[in-house]
């Protein structure tokens, strides 16, 4: 049995806000939940009754306090995250925006901060971000990626430098009930890049050749712009 076979998916969004003039990117430090203690774009689960784009705009507003005009948020890609021995995949719709309204502010889930594009903290981000984010920044989008992840062992060797409370990866991905908060040590030797390690990936930079409906693993991803 293929350990990466999925039978269902959750639909998620991820918005990257970029200041082209100053060559900066807005990232948020996730304070709790799935991906806690990692820097990432802003996003979350699409709620019933909203389009993927509406979900992306809502999450950006909730997590960073800012809004983007509907026509100014551009689809940058579609990523399918597959976790070993987890039948639930995550279909992540990635957007980019170069303009926004409002004041950036912190909330109880995310702490936003601008980073120089040349100093993106990839070592404290999901390991897959370093696969696709450089392509987005180079304008090599839209892309379609399949990202295979394996749970990291919780035990770490080496000198202990600190403790971090993370959501231990339980089989059901983002479902809150399946996450257990545990405190694990981290060291300088261990990248603080979350509970999953990148196992394999395929990134296709030629999304325009892929039909609007992409069939994979017996399910259909709707690709809206
Ligand atoms: C596996 N590799 C990954 N690489 C890069 N980004 C990843 C990711 N896996 C999940 N993400 C993003 O992390 C956020 C989780 O969102 P998440 O907190 O679960 O959603 P939401 O805010 O709805 O949750 P609440 O239930 O309200 O806490 C969401 O933007 C999603 O796109």
CA distance, first residue to last residue:
34 Å
Could you tell me the mean pLDDT?
Answer: 84
Supply Rg.
17 Å
Bound molecules: N6-Methyladenosine 5'-triphosphate
Describe this structure in words.
Strands 1, 2, 3, 4, 5, 6, 7 and 10 form an 8-stranded mixed sheet that branches. A two-stranded antiparallel sheet has the order 8-9. A two-stranded antiparallel sheet has the order 11-12. With 225 residues, the protein is mainly beta. It is globular, with a radius of gyration of 17 Å. The protein has a single domain, classed as Nucleoside Triphosphate Pyrophosphohydrolase (Alpha-Beta Complex), CATH 3.90.79. Helix content is 10%, strand content 40%. N6-Methyladenosine 5'-triphosphate is lined by residues 12, 14, 33-35, 40, 43-45, 81, 90, 92, 126, 128-129, 149, 174, 176.
């Amino acid at each position: 049995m293929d350990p990466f076979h999925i039978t269902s998916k959750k639909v998620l969004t991820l918005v990257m806000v970029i200041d082209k003039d100053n060559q900066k990117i807005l990232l948020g430090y996730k304070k709790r939940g799935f991906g806690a203690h990692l820097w990432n774009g802003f996003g979350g689960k699409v709620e019933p009754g909203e389009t993927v784009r509406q979900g992306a705009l809502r999450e950006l507003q909730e997590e960073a306090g800012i809004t983007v005009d509907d026509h100014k948020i551009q689809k940058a890609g579609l990523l399918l995250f597959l976790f070993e021995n987890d039948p639930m995949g995550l279909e992540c719709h990635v957007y980019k925006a170069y303009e926004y309204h409002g004041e950036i502010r912190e909330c109880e889930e995310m702490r936003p901060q601008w980073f120089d594009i040349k100093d993106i903290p990839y070592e404290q981000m999901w390991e897959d971000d370093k696969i696709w984010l450089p392509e987005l920044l180079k304008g090599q989008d839209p892309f379609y990626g399949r990202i295979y992840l394996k749970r990291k062992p919780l035990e770490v060797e080496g000198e202990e430098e600190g403790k971090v409370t993370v959501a231990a990866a339980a089989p059901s991905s983002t479902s809150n009930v399946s996450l257990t908060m545990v405190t694990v040590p981290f060291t300088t030797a261990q990248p603080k890049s979350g509970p999953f390690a990148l196992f394999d990936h395929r990134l296709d930079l030629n999304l325009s050749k892929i039909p609007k409906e992409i069939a994979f693993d017996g399910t259909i991803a709707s690709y809206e712009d």
